[in-house]
């Protein structure tokens, strides 16, 4: 099952690989994977690090969410494009989720944020929006030059009016450019999210989270 790549953390001192990126909301939850092929349909589920099924105490509720909202339209798109296989990546999150932890009984959602057809790599942002933009995907902010001003605006929570109606602490944004095996991604996080991590967790744990 295809793994999701680690996204580099961007700071004001980083050398930029590309000057401009398509920016999306970075939801604060758990990265889940769902795998499909034409004969078996959706037959495998995983977190970033391990497979799971209906017996998993934390992630099993994501399976019916996936079938209710995403499985059928994604199957249709895959067959229309004659893909031999597909892995989709979704964020599993709720209003009380924070730093990858979830609260029992919270109203959870599943948001599609990337797709990797067999042997094609992860689709670029433009093709992703074209094929999947009608589904539940992260908020798309647009195509922007990534410079010190934009990075500072994200840090300050001023970029694109970064707020969630449910009161979640806005984590940040993910920038994407290119496609397939040439896809480049960067992530930027808000000071409010970093401060909340430091206020909740012990220093050594907080720094591990902030480095992830």
Tag the structure with descriptive keywords.
212 residues; alpha+beta; D-amino Acid Aminotransferase, Chain A, domain 1; four-stranded antiparallel sheet; 6 helices; 8 strands; 26% strand; globular
How does CATH name the architecture of the largest domain?
A: 2-Layer Sandwich
- The CATH class of the largest domain is identified as Alpha Beta
**What low-confidence regions span 5 or more consecutive residues with pLDDT below 50?**
none
According to DSSP, the number of beta strands is: 8
According to CATH, the homologous superfamily of the largest domain is DNA ligase/mRNA capping enzyme
Task: Classify the secondary structure makeup into a structural class.
Answer: alpha+beta
CATH fold name of the largest domain: D-amino Acid Aminotransferase, Chain A, domain 1
Largest sheet: 4 strands, antiparallel
Mean pLDDT across residues:
90
Radius of gyration: 17 Å
Question: Major sheet: order of its strands?
Answer: 6-1-7-8
Total helical segments: 6
């Amino acid at each position: 099952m295809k793994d999701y790549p680690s996204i580099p953390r961007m700071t004001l001192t980083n050398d930029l690989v590309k000057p401009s990126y398509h920016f999306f909301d970075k939801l604060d939850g758990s990265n889940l994977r769902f795998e499909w092929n034409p004969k078996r349909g959706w037959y495998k589920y995983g977190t970033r690090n391990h497979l799971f099924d209906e017996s998993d105490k934390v992630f099993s509720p994501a399976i019916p969410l996936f079938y209710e909202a995403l499985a059928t339209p994604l199957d249709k798109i895959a067959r229309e494009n004659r893909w031999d296989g597909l892995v989709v990546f979704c964020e599993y999150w709720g209003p009380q989720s924070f730093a990858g932890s979830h609260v029992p009984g919270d109203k959870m959602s599943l948001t599609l944020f990337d797709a990797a057809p067999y042997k094609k790599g992860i689709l670029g942002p433009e093709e992703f929006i074209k094929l999947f933009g009608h589904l539940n995907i992260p908020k798309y902010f647009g195509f922007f030059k990534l410079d010190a001003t934009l990075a500072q605006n994200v840090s300050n929570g001023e970029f694109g009016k970064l707020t969630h109606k449910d009161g979640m602490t806005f984590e940040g944004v993910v920038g994407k450019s290119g496609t397939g095996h040439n896809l480049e991604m960067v992530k930027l996080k808000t000071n409010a999210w970093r401060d909340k991590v430091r206020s909740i967790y012990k220093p050594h744990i907080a720094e591990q989270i902030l480095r992830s």
